[in-house]
Write a structure and sequence with these properties.
With 422 residues, this protein is α/β, with parallel strands linked by helices. The chain is 43% helix and 17% strand. The strands form 2 sheets. Strands 1, 2, 3, 4, 5, 6, 7, 8, 9 and 10 form a 10-stranded mixed sheet that branches. Strands 11-12 form a two-stranded antiparallel sheet. The structure holds 5-hydroxymethyl-3,4-dihydroxypiperidine. Keywords: Glycosidase, Hydrolase.
Amino acid sequence: MDMKRIFPKDFLWGSSAAAHQVEGNNYNDWSVWEKKNAAHLAKTAQKRWNDDLRMKGTNIALPEEAFDPSNYISGDATDHYNRFREDFDIAKSLGHNAHRFGIDWARIEPEEGKFNEKEIAHYRKVISALRERGIEPMVCLSHWTLPIWVAETGGIVSSKFPDYFARYVRRIVEEYKDSVTLWITFNEPTVPILAGYIAGVFPPQRKNPLLSLRVYKVLAAAHRMAYGIIHELSPDAQVGFAPALIYLEPYSRSPLDKIACNFADYWVNKHFLKLTGGTNDYLAIQYYDHLKIKFPASVKSEAEKVSDMGSELHQEGLYYWLMRLKKYNLPIYITENGIADAKDKYRTEFIKDAVHYMKKALREGADLRGYFHWSLTDNFEWNKGFWPRFGLVEIDYKTKERRIRKSAQIYKDIILKERGEE
Ligand code: IFM
């Protein structure tokens, strides 16, 4: 036995992506919203950026592209829809044995109850392409975007939503259950809740705390239904949701800072897990941010090293989350962890730190089964558009050329070493 091996032999090493952010030519509530709001997003870029940075406490300039309306339209994105084989060849060449991707519900069910067979066949090809390359697929069923008809009937606030979602999930699982074991119901459910219904910066841009409470319940009900359906059709499936977990700390020892911190921690990190208790086969971690809460709600950080989006480099948070979730006695996957870093200045250090803290947690008994770096390629970062560069692989958006970043090679070296294949 290799005494030095810390990662389990079948550990999943890979990357993550989402349909709307890479495929191109998606038609859903977001693509409509982008077209309507691109000019406004460009015009208000500086103000929105200042608000973001005020939260993060850093002081970095916004790049030129942020003032260009075309930055905010996902358009043909990275053209992954047509180039998925090329992208998976790259993932394979980088030593990945897993990939988490998303299905765009709007492609599958563009009209209520009418399923598009061509798109169902498309995602079958995507899954086969992964399997043919020895890459385990992890499928995310919903990553924020909705078919237009779902959005028009009230979207994630509607009491009809769980039934609509359940019908789509049933069809998908019937189709792909023979080649998929790992399922994510919802990606970061708190983000559309908080950004869509509290901050009002994501569609449908409603600032209504009462509605946001309702959305938690609706999405949790939809998750529970999906869990039941997936297990009915595929008893060995592994089902969970993928939360954005923030490492929150009080700014000072003041009781007010502590109360504010506990309040934020509850709504950001705990509530959805509580609502879905008993219907998760694994727990997921999507980790990007470490924030200090100063009452009433402002957030400060004094970090020196920050990403292009002002996020502090703080991979110790992975360890924090792995240890915090250990008590649930469920397998854990890190389904997203990444950095906006156009110059690839910090990504290597970021990945090495991730590995360091994963090892530490594994040694201390965390049942960690996989790490999916966000993201395989650069992609469309929602209301920030194309300028944030999260890819292990750089995209030239004019030519769609893929260029492997240095950090991706180092990630590969790490994977091979940890697998004992170097
Ligand atoms: O790009 C997003 C992704 O869609 C959800 N998690 C965070 C990523 C980086 O901001």
